Each structure stands twice: as C-alpha cells, then as structure tokens.
Amino acid sequence: MGQIEGKPYPERWSEKERIPGFYKIQGGEELDEVVERAGKFLERIIKEHIGKTVLLVSHDLISQAKITYLLKKPWEHMRELERLKHTAITIFKIDNEKGHKLKLFNCDKHLKV
Prior knowledge:
With 113 residues, the chain is an alpha+beta fold. Helix content is 33%, strand content 11%. It is globular and about 40 Å long. 11% of the residues are buried. The mean pLDDT is 83.
C-alpha cells in the first residue's frame, strides 16, 4: 500500500479512490504487480512443498491476488471476485500439469456452528 501502509483510509477519499487498481499510491503497487508478487510467492511454495498440504493465511487483497494467479486470470479478475469474508476458507488442488482446481471458495461455515 505504499505510503498508507497500516494507516486508515482518509475520509476525503471517494469510494472510487478506495478501490485498488484505480490509481497507484506513491510507493505502492498496481494490482498487476500484486498478482505478480503473489504468483512468485506461490510458485516458490508449490515447488518447496510438492504433494503436501499447505495452509496460507493472508489479508483480502493478497488472497484475491493468489486466487487470481492460481486461476490464471488477468489482474482485472480481482475486481470480479466477491469480497472475501473474514476467516473464510478457499481451497485449491494444485496440479501443475492439468491446471489448479478451485475446490472451495470463500466458505465461512465454520463461523456458523
């Protein structure tokens, strides 16, 4: 997020300005850069943990970037994803030969028990 990392959104920003991808905050990243960074991270994790179960925990934006990368979608896809619920679970079956499969998306049933 650049200069605003860890700071609340200023009240003077319009809703459009709050949506990532409409502009680049000084020192921050565009959405395509976030997806690229997430992809590099995921490729390293996949390579280091072949055939293993891995749990990744992150905030909404980077989670959306990881989902977008694994689905091999362009960065604009992030805007099409529904907002991820707090503590929601998304599960992928990683398969470098046949393509990654989305098994569960944005599930929060564990909160309703």
